[in-house]
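hey so u asked for the seq, here:
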Amino acid sequence: MSGIETGFRTSFESAVASQLTNYLALEPTVGSKAHELLASFHQQAAQIAHVCMVGYVDLSRKAGERGRLALDWYDDFTALLLDIAANAGIEPILRKDRSTRARSGWLFDAARTLETFLYPHMRSPSDEACGKRLERSRRRLTAPARQKPSVR
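ran it, structure tokens below
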């Protein structure tokens, strides 16, 4: 694309820009404005690339909180399950057997069943992970509102 600019250019850059201009000129809506369109596109792409680099530098300077990000989207999933249970008159039970450490209960069974409709990378990797996600989401959903919200 830099072959569209004036100045020293390689023959390859000039040939590519020339061919693109010729092909654009064949487009009925472009016609004789092909050179201006290509130059405008090149300028806009350069501006966007520059802003992306500035954003990258800015974001890399900011130190985020340490640790893994919370699965906040799972709160919406848990809230949906709790709404379904309330509308159906079902107690949304979530249990963990102390001896076998196995998860059970309506909330757990519903989550494991409905997770199959989520994208694979969104599904809980294990029963224990699903149970933990449900516990944490339920805790966040029932927690009183904080005066100072979390940075995450």
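The beta strands are 95-96, 103-104. The chain has two domains: 2-61, 73-142.
lmk if thats what u needed
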